[in-house]
Amino acid sequence: MSKLSNTIISIGNHKGGVGKTTSTINIGAGLSRMGKRILLIDLDPQANLSQSLGITDPERTIYGALKGEHPPEPIEVIPGLDVIPSTLELSGAEVELSGEAGREYILKELIEPLRGSYQYILIDCPPSLGLLTINALTASQEVLIPLQAQYLALRGLGKLLDIIQKIRQRLNKELKVAGIFITQYDSRKILNRDVVSSIEARFKGEVFSTRIRDNVALAEAPTQGVDIFRYNPKSYGAEDYLALCKEIVKRSSHK
Ligand SMILES: Nc1ncnc2c1ncn2[C@@H]1O[C@H](COP(=O)(O)OP(=O)(O)OP(=O)(O)O)[C@@H](O)[C@H]1O
Ligand SMILES: [Mg+2]
To answer: Is the pTM for the entire model greater than 0.85?
Structure first.
């Protein structure tokens, strides 16, 4: 087995529906196919990641762990791919934890004892910049930003980059933007192509060359409770996420 590199990556963008959850699941599943040990953390009260992997009504969740009720308890989805699930209860966490001393570091402390068991820990962030996302970014070394190739995709990105910068200054010096990647790409749409060109021009060198194409299999897989590789390994979705995983591993080995 390759060395445990212990990289903790948040998949974040406060814009809703840009592909954070789909990407967390399928980057995780892709990396596990490459022989890496992976932990996914569902940090969104919508619990889409948990449900998309067929985990409903879990007893021990990230919420209970954040509240200090029990240790974080990863559930094995397939060998090499574990998940700490979430439920709607997590929606109370932002308020309930807001008065705690060191409230930004709660997740970081929870993950610490698990780090040695995984090569990559991926955190699916909620579509907000509240305390949960701040906890995710404080616990991470890297953040991956999915962007949809649509009009106004860049709107709001400045705010996310500002928060990342502040977290780097005040809470987590290690934090880096690992890169931006395009999701739900349709090369037949001129608008998609134009938006991608403007994103690439603005963020030179930070945009992954793999684009995740619009592919219905990616939307269907969660209805069966599986990742894209188990749902349809020959789909564009599987092909694209595997290519993205290879780029992620290559970039992280160059650091
Ligand atoms: N490449 C793709 N092709 C087709 N459908 C996709 C693709 N990526 C995501 N989707 C679909 O788009 C919707 C939004 O994706 P997803 O839930 O991953 O976004 P999100 O950023 O996690 O959303 P939220 O902000 O609500 O957490 C889902 O229904 C998902 O199945
Ligand atoms: Mg999501």
So the answer is: yes
